């Protein structure tokens, strides 16, 4: 698909394609052409031109998402291109904007917004090297440190101290970049580039470090908080966090696995859960909540009923919900507003079929994303599922891997899915008849790949043919065996892998020591 370019954009491409000429000529370029030239340079991956455009930026703001988004001159949205060459040039250009006192332009820049960039699996840039959220956090923190060192040099220009630019960014902090980010946040007042954290993701740091850095981010500005995987946050710690820090603008909260475990609850724990619910109720902007892999049996109402704003996104996958939990969700005011719902890991057909379909009917007019992985949906349930999904005309994404469905049932379901006008992404399971006859569900990781790959390929082709014949080439259908793509996990998997090996080694050493003492 070719996107139309205006004559202005074609001219901009021609101008920036000769980097040496473009860089020499920037001084004669009108201010209002800088955004156009920036997008053309980004498309052509002209790193040096991008650097110089940012270094001499003549406008009050620099919003990366808007600059790369669809424009009248070029409709294609480039904000999903996290090209390493382009982003590094952009950030070093920002540092040099502060350092360059000989620029012909008056320094007007007050706000830089880096939050509009989207990390995706497939990159279309020529260099094929991405700069993800973690690397962007790392580089910006490093550049802030460099500027602080320069400010202490005798040759530092007095005008540099006058510059103050708020840099809005989604920070991603792990053990490996923790110290660098802490230093940048600690000295924010002295630095011309002031990190303003809009979203914060934390993985693989100790609780002590997490509590320290979250206070440095200025939680009053935070809109999204993700505490994931290797941050061992339990319910008592969450209560401490919400009691000690106020998050007035927080819209999205993700908690790590096993934050809650009602099987070990005492009377004190019940009170703690009530307190957490009340604190979340004070967050009037909160519309997205993810609490996967916690055990919340019978406690959903206690946790969610204090919320005053309806949730638009809820992830309670693998949370051991019972009938009372599902009934609360189906009858709550959240149901009519849910745009994204994840109920994976619950045996829906056996435990609460009618209540689930009631919930689905309530959110059908707004639902965009539905995830029902490992829900024991079988061939006999497909007609009922089709009936439940029929009103979901805004559904954009449907994920249902890990369900014991035959090839025939999948074909029947796909014929229906073609009728959903907004659908773009489907994640379907390996058909049951591709596995050995004695396979049991949910399938363990060791058996996941033990299926007839040739038969699967044939079925996948037939399913894609159903889409093709219905003129639905716009729908992407896939089977990600080990879960959907996660840009943040992908970017830090080496560090997280090393951490897991270290943890496993420590457990083995403790076990060996205990065993030796017993002997």
UniProtKB/TrEMBL annotation:
Q: Taxonomically, which superkingdom?
A: Eukaryota
Q: Which protein are we looking at?
A: Leucine-rich repeat-containing protein 14B
Record's InterPro entries? LRR_dom_sf, LRRC14/PRAME
Kindly give the PANTHER family that the UniProt entry links to this protein.
LEUCINE-RICH REPEAT-CONTAINING PROTEIN 14B (PTHR14224:SF27), SIMILAR TO PREFERENTIALLY EXPRESSED ANTIGEN IN MELANOMA-LIKE 3 (PTHR14224)
Q: Which family does the entry's similarity section mention?
A: Belongs to the PRAME family. LRRC14 subfamily.
The primary gene name is: Lrrc14b
Kindly list the GO CC terms recorded for this protein: cytoplasm
Question: Quick check: keyword Repeat in the entry?
Answer: yes
Q: For this UniProt record, give its keywords in alphabetical order, as a comma-separated list.
A: Leucine-rich repeat, Repeat
